[in-house]
């Protein structure tokens, strides 16, 4: 009689990930880098397969009525696959955080304490219709010694299946376990729910995507989550802000790439600078296609500005929309930020040193800037070499996350028969 | 007509905590230390009130049938109040982590990046019948710049109410807001549930107490949690373990204070050392009152040992119980640990350097030791000066938590009109 192989359960997948992570935790950097080079090679060699599978996802997505923005994020062509392979090779050059000594001491009793960086173990990722995240997270997790379990969503399921198989082939070619990188798309939504409840089997869960996806994961997950959140981002133009600098920074923050989380939402202007700055600044913003909303003071100075509502102060724009409010002073600006910000990034334009330091110390956001565009909140710009996401929570990681933020620590204690008195 | 003050809601309490935390975030160390000294003074001055309230809680607890262990944890007498005040004064001497530079760089474009330590903001604590935690957490939170919201449980409600009022009086006496330290016991269980759902208002939640309390908080909380977990703790006696050192470390780990999380549960013994070590070692353990359970190999070598079950490998003892298993080698010991440990603390007794390093590298626990008693996993022993708890999760903090672990970070970015190209 023929025997049937048992269908693996999600717990089987997670257990295999845990076992594989144990092998990777003590792998040398050289082995991990060899795996990364093999992945880049496999992706390039598999371009035709990847693009074919992606084409099937795109056709299905069009039939399902996905928006053009989602379809563009979903699309992989030959150039984009090549860019993904490049990105994996770039990770080879990054510093391996595993084994780094964080701190240590020799206690008065002679006991030696060392806190060292270790991988988390098993990292879960939940995201939507972005096959590039599959490759990004897999390569960053691998370099930081972690196994990954990926839930990439049904829209990219065929693409992700091919990508994961290629990555597994590459990992196996250097003698590492295939279960280091696994997709659970086949388990559907129940699989995502089970992943969120798998505390003990999964060490950390990273949601990437829309605000509603992230909120669902935050609300439902029993596994510790790193929230990579939305940005309602502010620039405050202080009384002393020079016009040219104000224009440069506001334009760059708002217009350079309005669809991302570090782009500007709300401009706050000191009331004693509003008449000097707003006419020229708003003319430049309008010339760049920005729709302006503002409070009464703004609308008095700049004709034709739409009336801003509380919803405008609270909303991440993702587009060429800007809300403007005139405030009496820096403390009023900081109070507005405390009330409405998502604590991602805020910047002050000022020529006054005390005001700058007051703003830096008092604003409670992941990144607080003086005289710089908010667009610099980015793992690449920060010199991390790669970015897992931008954390807007305060636990574990805050701001752009690189390889370091994909690690935990453990304490090594070396004694010579020490006992406690 | 008389007006009635509106009854504050839990959201009012949490909002007041947030506002108060803003004032504390930029307070100098000198101001925070003055508040701590005032707290110690108020506790001593209020000893009679505290002991009276505590007596009412104790009487109610006896009527409610609380165990003698719980009643002992609940009890505050004159000496214990004095010890609490001493502990608060001790926190004055600890290094203030707020404002410390974690890392920084000047980017190629001249942008200056500095990652600095900042308070979380609002810390929630959920615990049971231990009024000393009220004072401990309040003083550590204050020193690290955080407001606290305390849910101490109904059994200690009268005691905690008096303690919190005294602490608030002290805080106010140095000009800081009373809302820095608040209890929500009056809101009952619904208040605890609401606290766990208050993501955005509370930055981190720390449960302290029984395994079931911690599991409830982990399962229900949408606020990020630091799990301070149970310890199923292991010692492995390697083939080369000297008898005297093995006896010292096992006895100290098991017997010195069996009711705490860093005490030993399971002894693993190399099969080529079992006959040499177990007879003398088990005789000493029995003389100390320890009940022994073991696998077949152990029971062959040591008559009268009870049969160990899987439940024994999985259970935190909290008492004078020890489970013993003979294993073929260090890898089998590590596999047992990977399967059954809660990843709190494990120790190897060995004279072989390679085996020691293999164990240190391969065991995935918060604290991994060589030739030392597991009882050293403790914030006080580690030189932190205080302990918030011992984290058994990997996110944010792992192992003993001191003041540093009550902080987050933020990035300060200083430019001179920098925009992104």
From TrEMBL, chains A, B:
Its EC number is 1.2.1.41. The keyword Oxidoreductase applies. Keywords: Oxidoreductase. The keyword Oxidoreductase applies. It comes from the Bacteria. This is Glutamate-5-semialdehyde dehydrogenase. It comes from Curtobacterium aetherium.
